[in-house]
Design goal:
Number of helices: 10
Distance between the termini: 36 Å
Radius of gyration: 26 Å
Strand content: 15-25%
Order of helices and strands: HEHEEEEHEEEHEEHEHEEEEHEHEEHEEH
Helix content: 10-25%
Bound molecules: zinc ion
Structural class: alpha/beta
Length: about 475
């Protein structure tokens, strides 16, 4: 009996020790550069390194430890890392990048046939290193960040405590990039739709286009290209992520809901304004009336509205066009004409609709921005109208039934901007996720070194693909 207990205990301990992974950083820099930069520095935010190179390595090891304590693999994960000159300007920079060095398919125990898996995950699934001669992940980071001409004056924050102020937190960027290397990416070309060597990525089995009901593996190249730019309609169809989203993402998403006429009824993505009242629930419902003050059919609202336009929008939700003057000037004019809300139609193609900048404490009506394409469809639907009625009713508000960053069925939206952003599209969460997620395409300042619920969806997604 004692013997049996001892064995059981040993097994339990053994499986406990597997509930983690070891991630080692392989320093690929030449002498004097990157991790080997001897420039003396002062310890910062729990990072005790006294050279720039040592602090960089400590930050890498902190991010490696975070992923290591989260993941489950008995094969050490090796990250070959270097610091290099990456594209940058004074105001924009590639912070770093990472990806799997090798991919494998149809190995014994693969949870999905005919699917590429990154090397680190393959190793986990088969229980040994599929190619001991090659590291698992390749990471490159921007050695010039903060230097003149490259995000001038804003270097990486190398502390480990996330107290980065206005600088970019290196540990956060590393957590993001390591996730890509672990498999948070498709190996399919998001610009051409082409599969890697004719085999889909495990990722592609979970990318669902809600307008066609097809996943990426059921599509041809052209269909994949088309679905990669369907902002708001490309979702992650994985049970781990969908369940976790109920905990991680906040209830309520700002949205335009067109109630009637039926041919355009539905929900539309919006950009929200930096001024005016935040969208709320139940929000503002009303008849939508366009302002027309600029031939042939634009309503710029850059000057006080004419009597005709004033009669059209009074007590209604005004629809106006972006351009010529500031948002604040336009909204002031329609507010003074008696509108109860405003929809601004973008004047350049693209999706999702960006936010609306500006400041004016005197604006008291809700304002949203919609895409040019959506605006044209809505205008078309009310092209025949009277001077005071369009018959289109809509709500500007927060839909509490939809979490911020999911579709109405609770599936997490993937980043699918129009035009396509090669390398960013479809391999990130959508930017509408609230609170901000680690795997959005840009690093937000409020991220908190978390990779799993209740804060983050990254680890549930890796579990969906087999981790
Ligand atoms: Zn990324």
């Amino acid at each position: 009996m004692n013997m049996l207990l001892t064995i059981l205990l040993a097994l339990l301990l053994c499986s406990n020790s597997w509930a983690a992974a070891t991630i080692t950083i392989v320093n690929g820099d030449p002498a004097g550069v990157g991790f080997n930069d001897p420039t003396p520095v002062t310890p910062v935010g729990g990072n005790t390194g006294i050279t720039l190179g040592a602090q960089r390595l400590n930050a890498f090891q902190a991010a490696a430890s975070k992923w290591g304590e989260t993941l489950d693999s008995n094969v050490p994960i090796r990250v070959l890392a270097t610091w290099e000159a990456l594209p940058c300007t004074d105001t924009a920079a590639v912070l770093g990048s990472a990806g799997a060095l090798e991919v494998f398919s149809d190995f014994p125990g693969a949870p999905q046939a005919n699917a590429w898996f990154g090397k680190a995950e393959t190793n986990k699934l088969i229980g040994f290193d599929a190619d001991p001669d090659t590291p698992d992940i390749r990471a490159r980071f921007n050695v010039n960040l903060g230097q003149p001409g490259c995000f001038t004056g804003s270097p990486f924050y190398l502390g480990l405590d996330n107290n980065h102020g206005s600088n970019t937190d290196l540990v956060t960027v590393l957590l993001h990039e390591f996730a890509h290397g672990l498999g948070f990416q498709t190996y399919t070309d998001d610009e051409t739709g082409e599969l890697l060597a004719g085999i889909p990525s495990i990722w592609d089995y979970f990318l669902l286009d809600t307008t066609t009901g097809k996943v990426w593996t059921d599509m041809n190249n052209a269909e994949r290209v088309a679905s990669a730019i369907k902002s708001g309609k490309l979702v992650w169809n994985g049970v781990q992520v969908t369940n976790a989203a109920q905990v991680v993402l906040q209830a309520g998403t700002p949205i335009l809901t067109v109630l009637t006429p039926p041919e355009v009824a539905g929900i539309y993505q919006v950009g929200t304004a930096a001024f005016g009242p935040p969208l709320s629930s139940p929000g503002v419902t009303g008849e939508v009336m366009p302002v027309v003050d600029t031939p042939p059919d634009l309503g710029l609202a850059c000057v006080p509205l004419s009597d005709l336009n004033t009669r059209a929008v009074r007590g209604k939700i005004a629809m106006i066009d972006r351009g010529t003057c500031t948002f604040v000037v336009k909204i002031r004019n329609v507010q003074e004409a008696g509108a109860v809300g405003t929809i601004v139609v973008d004047n350049v193609a693209g999706a999702p609709p960006p936010g609306i900048g500006g400041s004016d404490p005197g604006i008291v009506i809700p304002v949203v921005r919609i895409t040019l394409e959506d605006g044209q469809a809505l205008k078309q639907a009310i092209a025949r109208r009277t001077r005071t009625h369009s018959g289109m009713y809509a709500n500007l508000g927060v839909n509490l039934g939809i979490r911020a960053g999911t579709d109405p069925l609770g599936r997490v939206l993937m980043y699918a901007p129009r035009p396509n952003q090669p390398g960013s599209s479809v391999s990130h969460c959508d930017t509408s996720a609230t609170p901000n997620q680690l795997m959005e395409p840009a690093i937000n300042a409020d991220l908190r070194h978390e990779v799993k619920p209740p804060f983050d969806l990254t680890y549930p997604l890796l579990k969906d693909i087999g981790w």
